[in-house]
Each structure stands twice: as C-alpha cells, then as structure tokens.
Amino acid sequence: LILIFLVILSAQCWAQGPKDEINKVIIKQETDWNKNDMLSYANSFTDDGTIINFLGLFWKGKSEIITQFKLINDCCIKPTQVKLDIADTHFLNDQTAIVYIKETLTAKQDYQVPGKILKKGTTDNKMITAIFIKQENSWKIRSMQVTQIVPLPPR
C-alpha cells in the first residue's frame, strides 16, 4: 500500500514539477518586463531561440532578440506594464512543452507605436504561443509567437 502511494505521489510530483518550473520562467519574464530588464527577459530564451512579434517581425537567436528589444525599449516597452496569465500547458514529452499565455499590456503613460498613439490606461491583449525545451536542467523558450487580439467588428 505504501509502495502504491509512493508511485502515485512520484507521478504527481513529476507532472507538477516541470509545469511549476515553466510557470516560474513566465513569472520571471513578467517581472523582467515590468522592471524594464530586457536582457534578463531575453535570457529566458535558448541561444537559437526565435520570436515572431505581434507585428510579424521575425527575430532569430538570443543576440538578435536582445538587440531588437534594446531598439524598441524606450518607445514601446518602458511605458508599459505586462501581465502574463497561462491559459494552457501541453507537454509533448518530458523535454518539450507548448504553453499558451494571455498577455495584457497596459500603458503606464501615453506612447506611440507604429500606426497609433496609445493613451495611459489603454490595454492591449495578445495570445502567446511558446515552445519550451528543457536544456541543461532548466526550461528555456525555443520559439515564441505573439498574436494581437483584435475584437471583431459589430455585425
């Protein structure tokens, strides 16, 4: 009976362990964004990681991700605060997971992005699809795609 209990407990710990580790990475990314520490934010990616941002721009490799975030930091990141909420996590195996994240971006002040000016208090909602891989005993983002959520027009 004790052996059965230990086997069940061990299985539950494995199922919760990787998910909790991935959740910590996402919480760290939220904290890094809100502290405006994009270098630390980018360190959540593998060296060959990729991002397709909500404008459709493709950034390949951690060094390019860092460079691109530096370029847009003052205009588009610093005046915002982000909230990341995990919608779903699906493990493909013990080394790979797909994570769906809801991003709520709030303007802390008025700022301009391509095509519009966002006023203080404005929120943008996005869905993020992130592929995590376990690399050297830690979870890293291998690929991320950010999609802007645009409300449907009234009928």
Give your account of this protein's structure.
The chain has 155 residues and is of the alpha+beta class. The strands form two sheets. Strands 2-1-8-7-4-3 form a six-stranded mixed β-sheet, with helices on one face. The chain has a two-stranded antiparallel ribbon with strand order 5-6. The protein is built from three helices and eight strands. The chain is globular. It is 35% helix and 43% strand. It has a single domain, classed as Nuclear Transport Factor 2, Chain: A, CATH 3.10.450.
Could you provide a short overview of the structure?
The chain is an alpha+beta fold. The chain has helices at 2-34, 38-42, 62-77; strands at 45-52, 58-60, 80-93, 96-107, 111-113, 116-118, 123-135, 138-148. Helix content is 35%, strand content 43%.
Which secondary structure elements does this structure contain, and how are they paired or packed?
Elements: H1 2-34, H2 38-42, E1 45-52, E2 58-60, H3 62-77, E3 80-93, E4 96-107, E5 111-113, E6 116-118, E7 123-135, E8 138-148
